[in-house]
Amino acid sequence: MVSLGEYLDPQLVKIPLVARTKWEAITELVDTIAASGRARDRNRLLEAVLARERQRTTAIGRGLAIPHAKCDACGELVVAVGVPAEPLDFDAIDRQPVRLVVLLASAMAQSSLQIQVLAKLSRLVLNDEVFQRVLSAPDAESLVAIVRQFNHC
What we know:
alpha/beta; Mannitol-specific EII, Chain A; six-stranded mixed β-sheet; 5 helices; 6 strands
């Protein structure tokens, strides 16, 4: 069973995101991945995530957006998390602003793993208590610890 916590690294968590738009948030998280050395090609990864977002919003509702892409810019699944300083308009399906952005980048062959992590993220958001704790985490280490304590992830 996939555990969301095993894919989280405090180095890839931004609290707060300085972004003011969804496009800036995506760019900021891609830059975080690139700075960590986990992307072979920052520009190719950014273009893949932006292209996916242009097709249809990745804001799934309840304050969560999960921009994602499968491309050869990453050799393995990478998860970057950002909590915006102010909620972002992400064209969400429920019209609610986004308060948590989780960017997933994976190799082409990791579709199944990416889908499993997406499902775990959806469950996390449905647990109001855990989601509120994640949103109010004071720093990256705290956010990662909260998710890891949520045993269903």
